[in-house]
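[Meeting: bench + compute handoff]

Bench side (C.D.) handed over the final construct sequence. Compute side (W.E.) agreed to return the predicted structure before the next meeting so the bench team could plan truncations. Sequence as handed over:
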Amino acid sequence: MPQQAWATEKDREYFYNAYETRKIWAGSFDHLGPYRLMQEIEYYLKNQMINGVQAQEIIDAYNEKYPSMGYRAMVIQAPGGYSIVIPHGRGIEKAMMEKPQSIIIAGDTGSGKTVTSWTLVWKIWNALGQRGEVHVYGDIDNITGGLLRMSEMGKANYELSKFISSITAHTDDRTPGIPQEENMPQIILYNEMGKHQMSKKAMSTENIEMNLRTFRQRHTLTWIIHNVIREASLESVLRETSQINIFRPMSGKLLYSLRKNSPKSWLPAIDAIINLSFREGICIYPVMRVGGGDVMEIYETEAPSWYWQAKDLAEMNKRIAYGDESVPMSVIKEAIGLYKFNEMSSRDIASYVREKYGYDKTGQWWLRTIKEYDPEFIPHKPGKKKGEKGDGEETQDGNIPQGEQQE
């Protein structure tokens, strides 16, 4: 820490926001070496013995030499000419299990909020010993429908089947009426923000009841996850009592709104959001048992193996709901086998199904359906086969040949 007196109160505030409101937590790291290195680098930066560029070079050199140890971090600029270290870590997975938590995941449309929230639900459920009830609200992506379809098709193992049986999808966005057995944990996921969570409904009866549930969550063993596009839209009590915050990629007005409504000490980390990959998010959370201050880390979502298959099936379920699908699943599975193992073209599959079952769909419809349904889809090589008039498949660059138009 600089020994000289502060020139202005503003200088003191810059230093306080950069270093005294944050901490580097050992729980963010899998090994002791990276934790000690980040502490040393933070000490050098705090005392202005090195600058941010030098700190990043040191960290990158260690990461290059020991890639499996977890020497990954981003050194970012803070006001007042200071630099701070934000490590890559998975400390959030430990912090959220220390006690029942309320978690906010904020980010732009398509930024990965849903996959991150389902990943956390899965990890919490497993950390609880594969017990507890999972309640899902606003499941606009219909992941629960995809999971149920996986179970019906026999693609869910015992562990996943047990998880699926614990899920209840709700069409109403109010939670107070959820019955809870004694000592039975609950995980509540709001995949889309309901009207009773919005700041404009702050004094509604349903909102008050939701706030009371949040206040009591520690005593009722309840974990709550809110997915929101604009964090400021969430009702203030729900927002302020959520100790764990995950900020997924965003830009423009959403980023401006987030900066305007965040503590000053968070701003350097929030500014780094634009440099994240689509799998990453900035996590900010406290670890009260080791004192005050916030832990900041870059969390990379590693979705469970079943998620993407459930998502693909959910997309198909969505098309079924909108009347785009009238072909039974058994026929679709047969068509996938013909395409994958018999190398039958999509046009030939359309003719085969039309003659055998009477379902009149085009070759392009079948190609699209097989591609959406089969997670191991590999397109046939372009070009005509012997004795065939052409397939109408997608070319290697993903374009659809001109011979057949979209429906």
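W.E. noted at the follow-up: Residues 326-407 form one domain. C.D. will use this when planning the next construct.
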